[in-house]
Amino acid sequence: MKGPKHISDPKHTINKRLHKLYPEEIAQRAVNDIIDLIFKYKQRIKSTDYRLSQKDIILITYGDQVSKLHQPSLETLNNFMNDHLKGVINSIHILPFYPYSSDDGFSVVNYNAVDPHMGSWREIESISKDYRLMVDGVINHISQFSDWFKAYLAGDPYFQDFFINVDPSIDLSKVVRPRATPLLSEFIDDEGKIRNIWTTFSKDQVDLNYKSHRVLRNVLDALFYYIEKGATLIRFDAIAFIWKEIGTSCVHLPQTHELIQLMREVLHEVAPEVIIITETNVPHNENISYFGSGDDEAQMVYNFALPPLLLHSILNSNTTKLTKWAKTLTLPNDKVCFFNFTASHDGIGMRPVKGILEDEEIQYLVKTVEEHGGLVSYRAEEDGSETPYELNCSYIDALTNPNEDQYLSIKRMLVTQAAVLAMPGVPGIYFHSLVGSRNYHDGVKHTGVNRTINREKYNIDWLENELSTQGTLAKTMFDSYKRLISIRISEEAFNPFGEFEILDLDDRLFVIDQSCCGKENRIVAVHNFSNEEVICKLPDSISLPLCDILSSNCMPNNEEKAEKIKEIKLEPYQIMWLKGKI
């Protein structure tokens, strides 16, 4: 039985969600706002069906990652994609390309504009014609230099409930802090009055107040605008902190989940193919709560525990913790999946492995990354102490000391990346992982920000030279990575919604048995995380013949020698993707 068709009906789920979040009068205003927005954008957005498959690979990059003199950097990026990655990577996550005042884009000055240093909406729309476009909804906070906050300080009545002014004498000790910075930041309004404004992440990132229906309307307007400009995936940045209730932790509140569900439903009224991806760098069990029921919240969730667990496995030549954790991965249905990655513009999060790794194991990661030239960022705990929040380091340098052999660095890097490509879900590949970027210490010296270590930008001519010169780290990584991706996207068994089983064959191996879509083909992806030769026997449930699609070596079906044939031997850090029949 279908529900009511019009949002004005109190029984419509959008209407009911609004009444859960707001008092009657405000809820009704919000209903009217949303009806207006849907009418506005239905005239402007053409919806098309899309179903994720093994062909979906998302490149994570800044809009000015590559630059060329006298050319918008977004155009340079598009040209680079077309020249090197067309037919290999089909989607691109362009990190915030809006005008900003700090944090490399995550303090947005204007949601509806493109940073003129990168280009214009014309370049964004051009990219979206060639690639599925993922954009950031940086909607927990906005820059202190935005027109919204300026209008608030100027006393404009429309904006007076856009931000959260708190009496500093109020006890806020229960609020979960992702940073070691003050929760409240002091501002002086145009009348000379002090405003103590809620700033979860920094003084330049003032939190928005979603108890205001006007904030909701303006943010939804911006999200619809991104879809109009070609976005088909929207990343909700720092979404866990979006709803505030004094006296609570202000993280993962029921209203937060209700708000995400509301936003998804509103956007799907116009563009049901749009995918919501939640970014919540928190312990794993809290993170996966954003799948909701599987039908009502995020369609993809960042698999934040994966990067530190892969790192732990390489550094210890032991996959026990990784395998044990991966065996617990479940999804509410086949409409949602994980967004798998090892590196991003941020660091390697430590909170997601709380309860998975022991404290001493986390400290070992911290110590090793520091020895490899990396940095550590901390967060404030409720008792005033500080604990590691993230490791700031290029992923290849986190895995291997930069002073060690380049060949070893590449082998270790590739086995972790292959594991990500083989994991059930959609892979996200950070630009710097693709080209094997090292720690950018000069950048950190310049900005004083730890995260800059993994955010170096490149002149396109320099990068092209590196990618065309035999023996360079960039070329070796790039070519090897592209080959893995090319093989992955051609195999239906890697479909993000397929069936999978994590096999425990040896504590040095990470093994995933996958199949999909009622087809009889399977792939047993075997990854050696050690510097040792490993010989192991495949379980009886896996039948022969099997062929390694990476090397073309095959294991024939010979009943007389079946016991011996089912043994596989992997060289240090070797990858085998064994294809066979179920």
Describe this structure in words.
With 582 residues, the protein is an alpha/beta fold. Helix content is 32%, strand content 19%. It has a domain at 499-581: Immunoglobulin-like (Sandwich). The protein has an 8-stranded parallel beta barrel with strand order 1-3-4-9-10-11-12-16. A 6-stranded antiparallel β-sheet has the order 18-19-20-25-22-23. α2 (24-42) packs parallel to α6 and α2 (24-42) runs parallel beside α7. The longest helix is centred in the first third of the chain and has 19 residues, at 24-42.
How do you describe this structure in short?
It contains 18 helices and 25 strands. It is of the alpha/beta class and 582 residues long. Helix 3 packs parallel to helix 4 and helix 16 (460-468) crosses helix 17 (473-488).
The percentage helix is 25-40%
Q: Assign the structural class, choosing from mainly alpha, mainly beta, alpha/beta, alpha+beta, or little secondary structure.
A: alpha/beta
Question: What's the CATH class label of the domain at 499-581?
Answer: Mainly Beta
* Strand line-up of the largest beta sheet: 1-3-4-9-10-11-12-16
User: How far do the termini sit from each other?
Assistant: 39 Å
Number of strands: 25
Instruction: Report the major sheet.
Output: 8 strands, parallel, barrel
Report the total helices. 18
Question: Which fold does the CATH topology of the domain at 499-581 refer to?
Answer: Immunoglobulin-like
Radius of gyration equals 24 Å
Unreliable spans are none
Mean pLDDT: 95
